[in-house]
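User: Teach me something about this protein's shape.
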Amino acid sequence: MENGEGLKRVVIEGVDPEIDGGRFAIKRCLGEKVIVQADIFADRHDLLSARLLYRSEEDRDWGEAEMQLVVNDRWKGEFTVTRLGGYQYKIIAWVDRFRTFQRDLHKKIQAGQDVSVELTIGATLVRDAAASARGPDIQHLVRWAADLKSENSLETRVAIISDPMLTASMQRN
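Assistant: First, the predicted structure itself:
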């Protein structure tokens, strides 16, 4: 899925709240949560990830909140109004290659299949993420990729792939 193919396959629709396609502002009070929901889906059976980006009209940078799958294709995220004035929000979603890889790897392990080739593919996914990472994630991802390609035991390499810290770092990058 090079060149953003995963982004092209994702559809986001049914965003709520919105008034007249976003032409008019929704209203919330200071300290109140804005709960945003949308239908997010793609072709095939790959796993998706989604984030809610938001900012006040005074902010340059976007805040981020992870969106969670609620039911079927319905996702939900939220943020809190911390300043008076207008806010903007938008949703981004993508085919999550790494989480899909993790899911498929565990299915093959449960079926008793040899997963040595898959672990090499996992190391490549992690190494590729390190190439675009920022901050301390770079070092962690490079180390995890090297550990996945090493002569560590199968159990050790599967534990690395399943590490929640690796999953979080892959989500960020």
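Now, about its shape. The mean pLDDT is 90. The first helix runs from residue 5 to 8. If you'd like, I can walk through any region in more detail.
User: That's plenty for now, thanks!
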